[in-house]
Amino acid sequence: MMNTSMADLVIDLGALRHNYLKLRSLCAPGVRMMPVIKADAYGHGLLPAARTLAAAGADYLGVGSWEEGRDLRQEGIGLPILVLLGVLPQEAQEAVGHDLEVVLYRRDVALALDAAAGIQGRKARVHLKVDTGMGRLGVAPEEVVPFLESLKHCVHLEVLGLISHLAMADHEDKTYTYQQIGKFEEVLVAARLKGWELPLSHIANSAALLEVQASQFTLVRPGIMLYGSPPAPNRKMPVDLKPVMTFRSQVVQLKHLPPGTSISYGGTYVTPDRCDLAVVPVGYCNGYSRLFSNRGAVLIRGQRAPIRGRVCMNLTMVEVSHLGGVQEGETVTLLGPDGQECLRAEELAGWAQTISYEIYCALGTANPRRYVGA
Ligand SMILES: Cc1ncc(COP(=O)(O)O)c(C=O)c1O
C-alpha cells in the first residue's frame, strides 16, 4: 500500500456518528445527551465534530472555553452550549452575548453574568458546579444551598441545574462513584426543598453512562467513548465503538544494517543481528510521544514493526527485517487499523503510561486533519 503524505491524520465522521448513536442507545428514555467536545473535540476538530453530532441528534454540546462556544455560534451551531470550565468575570459579556450557558462556581462570576445579562436584555443561564468528590472545580455540597440563596437578587440569572464530575467511574469498584452520586442527590433534594427546580442536573461521564444507571439524571456528558475508546483499557463494552482517528505515514528511507549498528540519539538500541530498518517521518513534534521509544510499534502490511531507538522530533525508526522486502513509500499505520491488526489509542497510551485521551489530543492538535465520512 502506498501513501502520498508524510503525516496523514484522518478523522472519520461516520464513525463519530456511529459511536454517538451507540451511546444514545445506552441512555434511559427522556435523558438528554451533551457530547463533550472540549479541547478541540479531544483533538478531532471542534466544528466538524459539532456539526456531525448536531446532525445526529445531540441535545447539547459541552465545550471547554467561551472561545470554543463563540466559534461554534459563528458557524451557525444553534444547540444549547455549556462552557464546562466556566468563565472569568471579564468574559461574562462575551458568554452572554454568544448565548452560552456557563458552569458556575464563583460568586463574582455570578454577579458579572447577571450584570452582563441585564445590560444585554437577556438571561444568563448557568449550571452550578458541586464538588462531590472530584477535588477539582465546584463548591462544597454544604455550600450549594447558601450559594443559591445568595443569587436570589440576580434577576437576570437562571440556574438550570447542578453539575458535578465523577472521579472514579472508570474503576471496577463503584463504591466511591455511588458516594458521589449520593451526595449529588442529597444536595439536589435540599435545593429543591428551598424551591430551586434545577431541571437539568448532570454528573455522568462515559464510564458512568456505561456502567452506572443511577448516574443518568436528566442529562449525560460522554466524551471519550464518542471518539471510540473505552473509559479504561480492557473494559468490556456492551456496544461496539469505531475508532474515529487514524494516523498514517510512509517509509521515507529503508536501510540494511549490519549487527552492532547504533540507532538514533543516545544509542539506546544497537542491532543484535542484521537489520532492515525503516525510517518514518513522524516524531514528537507530531504528538507521537518520545516515551514510545523502544516500546511501541507501527503497522506495515498489516504486521507490527517495533520501534528501535529513540523517537526523535520528526523521525522514528522501526524494524522491518521480519517483513521482507519493505519498500520506500510503503504505508505505515501509527494509529488505527491495517488489515487484521489495529493499533488502538489505549495501546499507544500504555506504552507512554498515559490515557487514550492524551494520545488523541496530542496527535489531533499537532497534525493537519483530513475528514472523511461526513
Ligand atoms: C466536566 C466533564 N464532563 C464530562 C467529561 C467527559 O468525560 P469522558 O471523556 O471520560 O466521558 C469531561 C472530560 O474530562 C469533563 O471534564
Low-confidence region ranges: none
Number of domains: 2
> What is the first-to-last residue Cα distance?
24 Å
Largest sheet: 5 strands, mixed
Give the proportion of residues in helices.
25-40%
Q: How many beta-strand elements?
A: 20
CATH homologous superfamily designation of the largest domain: Alanine racemase
What would CATH call the class of the largest domain? Answer: Alpha Beta
Secondary structure category: alpha/beta
Give every kind of bound small molecule, once each: pyridoxal-5'-phosphate
Task: Average the pLDDT over all residues and give the rounded result.
Answer: 97
What does this structure look like?
This protein has helices at residues 13-24, 38-43, 46-56, 66-74, 92-97, 107-120, 144-149, 175-193, 206-211, 345-351, 356-366; strands spanning 8-12, 32-33, 61-63, 81-83, 101-104, 124-129, 157-163, 202-204, 219-220, 245-250, 253-257, 262-263, 269-270, 275-280, 297-300, 303-306, 316-319, 331-338, 341-343, 369-372. With 374 residues, the chain is of the alpha/beta class. It has two domains: 26-227, Alanine racemase (TIM Barrel), CATH 3.20.20; 245-372, Beta Barrel (Lyase, Ornithine Decarboxylase, Chain A, domain 1), CATH 2.40.37.10. A five-stranded mixed sheet has the order 19-18-10-1-20. The protein starts with 7 loop residues before the first strand and ends with a strand. The mean pLDDT is 97. Bound molecules: pyridoxal-5'-phosphate. Pyridoxal-5'-phosphate is lined by residues 36, 84, 165, 205-206, 221-224, 231. Pyridoxal-5'-phosphate binds at residues 36, 84, 165, 205-206, 221-224, 231.
